[in-house]
Amino acid sequence: MKILITGGAGYIGNTIASACLDAGHEVVLLDDLSAGRREFVHDLLFYERNVGDQTLLDRVTPTNTATVLSQSSVPSGNELPKADSVSV
Ligand SMILES: NC(=O)c1ccc[n+]([C@@H]2O[C@H](COP(=O)([O-])OP(=O)(O)OC[C@H]3O[C@@H](n4cnc5c(N)ncnc54)[C@H](O)[C@@H]3O)[C@@H](O)[C@H]2O)c1
Hints:
Blueprint: E1 2-6, H1 11-22, E2 26-30, E3 45-47, H2 54-60, E4 64-67, H3 74-79
Parallel strand pairs: 1-2, 1-4, 2-3
The protein binds nicotinamide-adenine-dinucleotide.
């Protein structure tokens, strides 16, 4: 399967990516690096984009999507609650 992981450069996204690769799946990462870490990207196909980029999402055409992004900072989430409100 081709699995898109949004928030893929984050802690949980990196863990899911490793598990997917171990299971033999193709992995594509999307992350705006607002809190992610580039070293979690490794040599995977990576799009440094906001998850609201519908044009890109239409182009990637994954078999499955794991959505593990959010603002991990509670103050930021309170200040910008709509930043996470997208549908993938
Ligand atoms: N880490 C834990 O132990 C844990 C436990 C339970 C639940 N969770 C939940 O899992 C989710 C992920 O947690 P995490 O620890 O991996 O956080 P994280 O901050 O490490 O990863 C989130 C990633 O999402 C990215 N991101 C945020 N908004 C984005 C956007 N609009 N577009 C693209 N990328 C965006 C960030 O850059 C970051 O890389 C959160 O919802 C968190 O509450 C985490």
